[in-house]
Amino acid sequence: MPTPPVSVSPEDETNKFLKENRVAVFSKSYCPFCEQVKDLLRTHRIPYSALELDLIDNGPAVQTILFERTGQKSVPNVFINGRHLGGCDKTVEAHADGTLQAMLNAGSGDAQYDYDLAVIGGGSGGLACSKEAARLGARVVICDFVKPSPKGTTWGLGGTCVNVGCIPKKLMHQTSLLGEACSDASKFGWSVTESPQHSWEKMVKGIQGHISSLNWGYRVQLRERHVTYMNAYAEFVDAHTLRTVDKKGRERLISARNVVLAMGGRPRIPDIPGAELGISSDDLFSLPRSPGRTLVVGASYIALECAGFLRGLGLPVTVMVRSILLRGFDQQMAELVGEHLAQRGVRFLRPCVPTRLERVEPDEEEEADAAETRPSIRVTAQMEDGTTLVAEYDTVLFATGRRACTAGIGLEKIGVRLSPKDGKVMCNEAEQTSVEHVYAVGDILSGHPELTPVAIQAGRQLARRLVTGATALTDYQYIPTTVFTPAEYGCVGLSEEAAVERYGEHDIEVFHQYFTPLELTVPQRDENASYGKLICVKSQRQRVVGFHLVAPHAGEVTQGFAVALRLGATKADLDASVGIHPTVAEQFTFMFITKASGANSKSTGC
Ligand code: FAD
Ligand code: NA7
């Protein structure tokens, strides 16, 4: 009896063809562009195989799969060592500029796996890692999937920073600074006839439009780098195999030699009755209407930054602080940031925690009067001294920390060790987990700062080590950062507390200065409220180990000084540097008052 033909799925047919052929051309027998590509390969004696899609039963289905994977509908569709190259024009161009040869030379990787590298998470770290690995010749797949927030907010490719972090935050901070600039303007002679009005809706539309362009840009970059992008949630089946599920519930299995974890984090919400009435930073930046009277719960940088720009937009803002401001930062500077916020009208409840949230429907009379009404939220809270507070707000924003997205994807099953303290991934200095071929970068990494440039740097360096055998490690020392409150706070190196703990009080010298940036003198704003501080180690020729600044544009200033601290700058190096006058940064070239002297550190002149 003849054996019935074994039916091969289009998926298997595609994978098999790609796996077995170093140069794979998906073609159609009558297509002149396909012929041009084949001719080019023949002429240059590059062995290839062509799968003529018009001559096989599965042809249209294979073409659909290729479209899903590469975004390219047409033939020819050329792959080198399993990596997507493109159509006729791309192939001709790649041959002319040497890319084709480089892709051939990059080797076929490990034929046992679908990919050399699978990256879970398309945020700052995952994107940087996947693009760099592909640039260096690896076959890379990246899976990114956003689970909606409890309020149903979701977003596109790019992760936290682009969609619900640094980018919208900084743009809202800028919006708030523009408001301040409007009121300064009249002091400089501008005739500002009406008090400026702000439209939340217009701001959100502008910012979300910019974010959409970034989302699109990332997709294009992945395609150009021949990274396979899957908008799908990934979890481990075994140590080299991932199950991916897209939003339509379609499942796929993919295997990879190495896996990089870059799943980032999501806001943590306190477990109190009514917490579901609150929102988090995941929701704030795309709110369809102004949050109105806002209670911000938490005192981390995210909490204070949001409080700062909301107040700058003219909203009544209260911050509920459980203990200290800006845990982990220099506490003198943290209090200064708090004073600036309070001076701008932010109300602080401290020490205080919320215990219950309840919805309050607007009463009928009020509803009839007001053009626009909405339910408010009644918050019950407990002060440390036992007093109970009850107040109503339009919005409660929880900025009470973030949890790493490491649960429920099979990490424990394959042996990846997580920190019992915060569920983050434990790694060695090469970002390698307890499973040899599984690595982690970005916010899920235990013991390192949660910042975009840190994730990007670690992702890129890791890709270079994995693909080219490079040895350079990411240096997590002297990472600068800025809190974008209305008066920005930039810092790099140690806080005063940490410096005293590391070197002892006797070995630390602190130089400091209050000052008024020139721009604020005419508007008579924030007099002597900017402040700089250098923390030096006496026994190391006054090496500067901490730099702190609260002032306008502190972020821009701090970046440059971070380089100096990395290079081991001493106080004498800063003294010998010539300042740029009149700037905020120049303060650090003539900072001579020590804290220990007790001398007046307020500026009196230019
Ligand atoms: P993320 O960018 O969070 O990306 C992880 C991605 O993986 C997400 O898209 C997630 O949905 C996806 N994912 C998770 N699990 C899976 C899975 N199983 N399968 C598929 N996909 C998955 N940093 C700064 O440097 N400067 C700032 O000014 C700044 N401001 C911030 C403001 C706010 C409000 C917030 C929340 C953060 C801010 N940060 C800032 C921090 C910065 O956003 C993060 O450090 C950075 O985004 C971390 O990048 P990542 O790659 O680790 O993770
Ligand atoms: P952080 O820095 O962990 O801060 C969380 C903040 O929220 C902090 O002020 C906490 O107060 C406060 N918090 C936490 N739980 C509660 C409850 N239940 N009630 C009231 N207040 C609470 O988190 P972020 O998300 O802002 O920052 C994430 C990372 O970015 C962080 O790890 C830094 O490295 C940078 P506490 O000080 O604990 O009393």
Q: How would you portray this structure in words?
A:
- 41% of the residues are buried.
- The termini are far apart.
- The protein contains 18 helices and 25 strands.
- Flavin-adenine dinucleotide binds next to helix 6, helix 7, helix 8, strand 8 and helix 15.
Average of pLDDT: 94
What percentage of residues falls in helices of 4 or more residues? 25-40%
H/I helix tally: 18
Which blocks of ≥5 consecutive residues have pLDDT under 50? Answer: none
Each distinct ligand: flavin-adenine dinucleotide, ligand NA7
Span between termini? 101 Å
CATH class of the largest domain: Alpha Beta
Q: Determine the strand fraction and express it as a percent band.
A: 15-25%
Total beta strands: 25
What does the radius of gyration come to? 28 Å
Shape: globular
**CATH fold descriptor of the largest domain:** FAD/NAD(P)-binding domain
Give a brief outline of the structure.
By secondary structure, the protein is α/β, with parallel strands linked by helices. Helix content is 33%, strand content 22%.
Write the layout of secondary structure elements.
Layout: H1 10-20, E1 23-27, H2 32-43, E2 49-52, H3 59-70, E3 77-80, E4 83-86, H4 88-97, H5 99-105, E5 115-120, H6 124-135, E6 140-143, H7 159-164, H8 166-185, H9 200-224, E7 228-230, E8 232-238, E9 241-246, E10 251-261, E11 265-267, H10 281-284, E12 294-297, H11 301-312, E13 317-320, H12 331-343, E14 347-349, E15 352-360, H13 364-369, E16 376-383, E17 388-393, E18 395-398, E19 402-404, H14 411-414, E20 438-440, H15 452-468, E21 481-483, E22 489-493, H16 496-503, E23 508-515, E24 530-537, E25 543-550, H17 554-566, H18 571-576
Parallel strand pairs: 1-2, 5-6, 5-10, 6-7, 10-20, 12-13, 12-18, 13-14
Antiparallel strand pairs: 1-3, 3-4, 8-9, 9-10, 11-19, 15-16, 16-17, 21-22, 22-25, 23-24, 24-25
Helix pairs in contact: 1-3, 6-15, 8-9, 8-11
